[in-house]
Backbone:
């Protein structure tokens, strides 16, 4: 009885092997599918290169919109910084910092801080010119 079972099993495997289709080389394709979508419909929908191109175009449009939004945010930040810099320039000499400590004249503690009001104005002018140039480059 056991021998007949094995014979039937081997015959069925041989039959299945002979009747299976030979597709040649195969490849796996990974596609994201929404949870509520039918998998069969999704594979039919994304079957051609035209659909892949449409998907790519949609992704590129999304990227462009995100970049435009980022640029608009950066422009707004640049405008705010430019107005703050203009206010600083219009004040001319910086007011003393509250805290009771006086700065020793001629002492350069930061290494890059200018020593006199004319140097400070020149440095602020350079900074403003650089900011304006960056703004123009972004536009």
Residues:
């Amino acid at each position: 009885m056991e021998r007949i079972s094995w014979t039937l099993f081997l015959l069925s495997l041989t039959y299945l092997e002979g009747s299976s289709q030979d597709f040649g080389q195969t490849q796996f394709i990974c596609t994201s599918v929404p949870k509520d979508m039918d998998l069969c419909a999704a594979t039919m929908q994304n079957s051609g290169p035209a659909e892949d191109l449409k998907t790519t175009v949609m992704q590129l449009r999304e990227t462009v919109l995100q970049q435009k939004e980022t640029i608009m945010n950066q422009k707004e930040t640049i405008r705010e910084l430019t107005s703050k810099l203009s206010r600083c320039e219009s004040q001319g000499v910086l007011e003393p910092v509250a805290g009771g400590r006086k700065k020793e004249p001629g002492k350069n503690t930061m290494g890059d801080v200018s020593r006199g009001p004319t140097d400070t104005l020149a440095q602020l002018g350079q900074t403003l010119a650089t900011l304006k140039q960056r703004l123009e480059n972004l536009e």
